[in-house]
Amino acid sequence: MKTTSNAARIMTRRSFSKLLRALIEEGYELIGPTVREGVVVFDQIDGIEDLPGGIEDVQGRGHYRLEGSRARDDGRLFGVVSGPDSAKRWLFSPREVVATIRRSEKHLEFDEPSEAPRYAFVGLRACDLRAVAIQDRVFSAGPSVNASYVRRRENAFFIGVNCARAGENCFCTSMGSGPRCTQGYDLVLTELDMGFMVEAGSANGSRLLAGVHTRCATKEEMSEADSIPEETSRRMAKSVETEGLPTLLKQSRESSRWEEIAQLCLACGNCTAVCPTCFCHDIVDGVDLTGTRADRTREWASCFSLDFSRAMGTHLRASVGARYRQWITHKFGSWVDQFGESGCVGCGRCITWCPAGIDVTEQLALLGGNGAGNEGEAGT
């Protein structure tokens, strides 16, 4: 989707700072990329000064490192790629009390759900906006609606950023989810030398943008902004052949490749934790020591856990190979049957944060009989 002249505006960093301040004044909690303990994570920020200006990340298979402020002499605020976090941690909390029951001498009291927070996400990439849309289908449009997710989602404001750099593990172009933001944003930014190209994607975004100083973008500026995600797409190092992939995975059920992967995979669940679309969870009930309070809690779960597939006193997927097969087949295959689209957005987090350095793009290529093109064997 090209930039349109009637929508594109130029905004300085000063105006951007005022825009973030306006969101805070409207009661939003800003959630954006910021450095915590040597990693760029999505966390609460107070303004533009908390963004990782001048920082660049170096990622590889099972590898992540931040370069200091000298690594980027342009001082770009959004020069990093995706860290381990996404909007999922805030919209679908890792651990959330969904119901509390208190017992008195005469009756039971049921706590009503608390009011949902208002989050303004700053700097979400195209892949993460696509991931939010996928989770919308799971939690909002399915037969079982997650009321907590829906409340947080309806209260959220999204500021997307078009990617100016392809990370070492990114393959969003293959999955049709980036690097240009095309959906799910209230405002979208393209970072330029003089500030930002900004476009509104909703009435709420237009209203907020009208409150800060901007100017019309020139044709040259629009052309520069369009060229940035186009160049990022050309520089994408990894790829996945999606044509016929669900059928390939169904036909590969008995492939020896799964046990070969199992020799590397630690079944730690890192990939499912950092994945912005994984939605599996457990419901856990607990009672306090006095017996007067019971909490029902929703907690993230992983299909790599042995007990995840426990049924009727046995484990349906006892081997690590079977669990890896379940994850990758659901993500790239049966997810299409279930939701009409792939469950992968090509962010590459599962590659970066896998301690064994397993590259999902390589494993899919090997299953298809084409092991070339994605940097050799895992773990090397």
Reconstruct the topology from this structure.
Elements (H helix, E strand, L loop, with lengths): L8 E3 L1 H13 L3 E8 L2 E6 L11 E5 L2 E5 L20 H4 L3 E9 L4 E3 L8 E6 L1 H14 L7 H9 L1 E5 L10 H4 L11 E6 L2 E6 L2 H7 L5 E2 L2 H16 L10 H7 L5 H6 L7 H5 L6 E7 L5 E8 L9 E2 L2 E2 L4 H20 L9 H4 L7 H8 L13
Parallel strand pairs: 2-8, 8-9, 9-10
Antiparallel strand pairs: 1-11, 1-12, 2-3, 4-5, 6-7, 6-14, 10-11, 13-14, 15-16
Helix pairs in contact: 8-11
Key attributes of the depicted protein:
2 domains, globular, 16 strands, 22% strand, 13 helices, 4-stranded antiparallel β-sheet, alpha+beta, 8-stranded mixed β-sheet, single chain, 380 residues
